Amino acid sequence: MEHEDYEHILFSHEDDVLRVTLNRPECMNAVNERLHYELAHVWDTAERDPEVAVILVEGAGGNFCSGGDLEMVERMANDPNLTVALVDETADIAYGMINCSKPIVSAIQGMTIGAGMLVAMLADVSVVAETARLTDGHSRIGVVAGDHAVLIWPLLCGMAKAKRYLLTGEFLTGAEAEAIGLVSACVPHDQVPVEAMRFARKLAERDPLALNWTKRALNHWLRSAGSAFEHSLALEMLSFSQPGVKRELARLRTAKEAKQAQAASG
Length: 266
Fold this sequence. Notes:
single chain; 6-stranded mixed sheet
């Protein structure tokens, strides 16, 4: 895919840094089928660009990504073929980031959930806003913590914290995420783009081969967890067919409608 083929991702070059912006701000950059497909290909697009030394990924409108679009999740709960199709795409997102030779920096603001956490956490350097709200979120909708969580959370923050947050679905602030080692750096909300770009430019100044081979070697820790990741991913997709998902989705839909009605009434 080339830049012009993307519908929900914007690209801009700042010298040799490629800024990749998830662009569905009207729904906090929630992932629908098209954006999911694009996330599975964007790392290869950047890899093939000879003018790119570092990738900076962010969300439009003050949020990184609020996870899977609720309508898409409902379609997955009712369409096994869609669920099966997304298995390979999800693996492609994760392995695409792991195997991309170029360093990836994530600039995390606002809401970051589920698929958003996949992209945010698998970046090589993650910069988060102090007030950002982060959660894996899968258990909140009756789904197994697949995507990325089993792959990287225990490595970043240890098994005890990983189990706490993946089983409960509790939210963390950016400051809390930094305290447990889940992210690389934490700064005030309005400083996130500046600090993320500072890291990107610093990496762009380094020898590309040294960075490529260092990243490749470090990421063997993640590749060694590939069997656990793919098992969790299979269980995640299988769990979409279970009754708990529809029950939790109905609860979320009711809560959303009640909130909208309250806002409309003033």
